[in-house]
């Protein structure tokens, strides 16, 4: 057996607990009494551990159980490992009650972050049967357009929030979040700011449009609002798109609730276009396995059935843009 395997076999929870007991009681004799062992057996176990690790853990010149620097490090790391083992055991017990080990949320970039973080805060405040928080680890993915669908369909996400259309697969369940209204905006110093309304397609095509890159890798990317021959500035997020609009780098449409304060303050100009009022229904979606969802997914689905929650997710943009 290789030396690394020998060391691994020696570092058992029992050995780490033994080190903790000796250090805490201050002597081999006291530790042996607490552990219900004879001192000689405890001394033999320590020597076996020292031989396996090829280090000296206790100062043999002292009558007390004085740790060497190597022993102190093993004690420190051992206590941390024992705590982690306890945490894992508790987590496994809670997961056995129906909580998923991990739940991945694929969220479209157009979804309001403040409302989303309110939901995450409420999730962590939930109590399981033993009074502890849910053992499920949440993982958040921010996607754009078809990328939100792709994360769900590929199994990389358990629920998608903010998909732009109904399910492309019979194995997926969908429900509406609600309508999201978009505003075509330019900076006050942009050439289109003073142009008569509604703006014609030919007028808009003469100016650079700012778009957000679709995050899909395998599915056909979705492109919205780009006219033939139009110059395009592609940015990674809606927050960066708003910044680009404020700087006059181009024109483009963004959720009204995301730029309302900028429009009211005069930092952006909302222009009517040939398309009229642009609005689309956003949905949330999850995979239908034919079985009852785990407790974490069921919690999120229950919250998303609330009309107030859904409205907040499509409208509550102000104050938190990530």
UniProtKB/TrEMBL annotation:
The keyword tRNA processing does not apply. This is DNA-binding transcriptional LysR family regulator. The lineage of its organism: Bacteria, Pseudomonadati, Pseudomonadota, Betaproteobacteria, Burkholderiales. Belongs to the LysR transcriptional regulatory family. Keywords: DNA-binding, Transcription, Transcription regulation. Residues 11-68 form the HTH lysR-type domain. GO terms for molecular function: DNA-binding transcription factor activity; transcription cis-regulatory region binding. It comes from Roseateles saccharophilus (Pseudomonas saccharophila).
């Amino acid at each position: 057996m290789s030396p690394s395997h020998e060391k691994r076999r020696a570092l058992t929870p029992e050995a780490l607990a033994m080190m903790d007991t000796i250090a805490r009681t201050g002597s081999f004799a006291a530790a042996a009494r607490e552990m219900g062992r004879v001192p000689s057996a405890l001394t033999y176990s320590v020597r076996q551990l020292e031989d396996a690790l090829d280090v000296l853990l206790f100062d043999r010149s002292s009558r007390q159980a004085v740790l060497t620097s190597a022993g102190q490090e093993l004690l420190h790391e051992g206590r941390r490992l024992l705590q982690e083992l306890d945490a894992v055991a508790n987590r496994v017990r809670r997961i056995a009650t129906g909580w998923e080990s991990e739940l991945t949320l694929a969220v479209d970039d157009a979804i309001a972050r403040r409302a989303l973080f309110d939901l995450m805060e409420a999730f962590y405040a939930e109590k399981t049967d033993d009074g502890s928080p849910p053992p499920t680890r949440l993982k958040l993915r921010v996607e754009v357009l078809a990328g939100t669908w792709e994360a769900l369909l590929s199994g990389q996400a358990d629920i998608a929030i903010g998909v732009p259309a109904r399910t492309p697969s019979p194995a997926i369940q969908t429900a509406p979040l609600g309508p999201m209204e978009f505003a075509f905006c330019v900076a006050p110093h942009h050439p289109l700011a003073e142009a008569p309304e509604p703006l014609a397609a030919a007028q808009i095509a003469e100016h650079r449009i700012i778009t957000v890159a679709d995050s899909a890798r395998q599915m056909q990317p979705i492109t919205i609002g780009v006219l033939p021959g139009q110059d395009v500035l592609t940015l990674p997020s809606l927050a960066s798109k708003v910044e680009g609009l404020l700087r006059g780098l181009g024109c483009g449409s963004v959720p009204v609730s995301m730029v309302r304060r900028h429009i009211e303050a005069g930092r952006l100009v909302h222009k009517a276009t040939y398309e009229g009022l642009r609005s689309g229904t956003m949905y949330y979606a999850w995979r239908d396995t034919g079985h009852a969802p785990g407790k974490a997914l069921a919690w999120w689905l229950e919250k998303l059935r609330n009309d107030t929650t859904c409205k907040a997710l499509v409208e509550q943009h102000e104050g938190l843009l990530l």
